[in-house]
Amino acid sequence: MGLLIADDARVRTLTLDRPDALNAFNEALYDATTEALLDAAADPTVAVVVLTGNGRAFSAGTDLLEMHRMATDPAFQRGKHGFLGLVDALAAFPKPLVCAVNGVGLGIGATVLGFADLAFMSTTARLKCPFTSLGVAPEAASSYLLPRLMGRQNAAWMLLSAEWIGAQEALESGLVWKVCEPDDLLPTARRYAETLASRPISSLVAVKETMTAPLRAEIAAARERENACFAELMGGPANLEALSAFAEGREPDFTGLPAGW
């Protein structure tokens, strides 16, 4: 399933473990991570969840080869939860969520930080929201959450440009809380997670509830807008050109698309 789960000191660490695919989310990994979050939410022995990646990537986002099959094969079998189920679980997760960005984060590997209560990032990691380079729309309420975290112009650049954001830029913009040397990343994230986990779970849940409750309606509305745009654009000329270019190992060329694309 590509997910490692470990418990220690009331902290559950979820490690994305598809290193050969840069921890990209296929349907199986979306389902496994969603189930792990639902289980952690319900488990009275878990106070905090840490999410990180194995290898040189945090997550390369949605598996584009599988996404290409999804867009072109009517018989493609989707998972139980999929991308939307994972975002549902993130939005509803009642306990502190700590992200430790160990390497490259693209797509959901970047937008997940909108749901993190604390985010740590390796000095060698980079983040990218590749939506315009894929001919699609934002996802995971990032059009609402990233401007809140980073400010409008920093978020606009990240969402519009599909360019890489380095660790220092992520720190200065407020997208992450602390930047660590690679070997210090997970120990540092765990140290802070264990501090939180030493507090009463009931209090942790109450604090998070009072912080996130005012945001839920806006998150839901942003997701509806994004999903409508995504549904319109996925499978369109720009998206098919981007996915075909990825499958063929070339750069996409959007200059020859019909007007308006």
TrEMBL record:
Localisation per UniProt entry: Peroxisome
Give the UniProt keywords, A-Z.
Isomerase, Peroxisome
Q: Which GO terms describe its molecular function?
A: delta(3)-delta(2)-enoyl-CoA isomerase activity
Descriptive protein name = Enoyl-CoA hydratase/isomerase family protein
Entry superkingdom = Bacteria
Q: What InterPro entries does the record tag this protein with?
A: ClpP/crotonase-like_dom_sf, ECH/Chromodomain_protein, Enoyl-CoA_hydra/iso
| Gene3D superfamilies (alphabetical) | 2-enoyl-CoA Hydratase, Chain A, domain 1
Q: Quick check: keyword NAD in the entry?
A: no
Provide the taxonomic classification: Bacteria, Bacillati, Actinomycetota, Actinomycetes, Propionibacteriales
The principal location of this protein is: other
The family database entries (Pfam families) matched by this protein are listed as:
ECH_1
